[in-house]
Give the backbone structure.
Amino acid sequence: MFHHRAGDSADGLVVMAHATVCVGFTLSQLLRGASRIFPTRSASLGLRHSAFCYCTANGTIKSKRKMDHLERTANNFRQEVISQAKVCGITNESETVKRLRLAIANKEFTFKAGQWVDFFIPGVSVVGGFSICSSPGLLERERILELAVKHTAHPPAHWIHTECTLDSEVALRVGGDFFFDPQPGDSPVKLVLIAGGVGINPLFSILLHIADLHGYQEGKENGYKMGTVKLYYSAKKTSELLFKKNILSLMNAFPGKITCRFHVTQQSSQICKELQPHVTEGRISEKDLEKHVSKDTLWYICGPPPMIESISKLLSDIGVPRNCVFFEKWW
């Protein structure tokens, strides 16, 4: 299935809601009372190819008060399972982004590539919302999930950067309608992934899942036949490009099947030799994208709202059908 949702951010997501939900429980209380904290939604939202969501004046938030993650995602799909997780790895992905590895013992905890988690921290009343950057396959194989979180003043992100340590315990709940989860009987598709800044997170999860599908496909005659994937990833400078070494490794492992073009808009230093062949200075353009337009191509976009709006308009102008475009907004 190929789904979308209408917004995502390090602090939360861009879906209007009517009430504020505050959570201030200890971890054990949280896990015991999870079913009472949130309304449950048993059915997945959206169709096989969800309708294209695009930005209008009525679709943007006008209130000066910043909405929190639970408000923004009140209408998004959420699983019923809330699981305890233990931090088993912390690394610096960039100067401002920490990458967390979380061990999850609960085998009922699953997710689709592109989804996010509600992030519950004992003693912190604000619930975080972070897109998963690892693959469902890593969770299946090792019971590990990864997040990459940018440092902001938002309490959950601030906690991750200033207080989180190895063996810290948190709780997670999966949600979101933006994902790529093809089934064996689905028609093959090509993907174009377009990321801006930390909007790479859910798209990197999708890219890793595609690599797993290619790897699985090589040893099996049955199963989903994955088409080619092109990633366009834009940031101010190469030092802000997350997962770049991992992405280059995927390109080398699956030549012709997985390709990437990095774009930098404010690069001042020299670009390293390893990256040079794959970097364009300047924004992602119509010329870059028009070559990928076809009836069997799906487009996944995640980044800040202005980027989403400009790319969405560009895709419309070059004739991409609305039902082939899926996006997520980071605020």
In short: The CA atoms of residues 27 and 122 lie 5 Å apart.
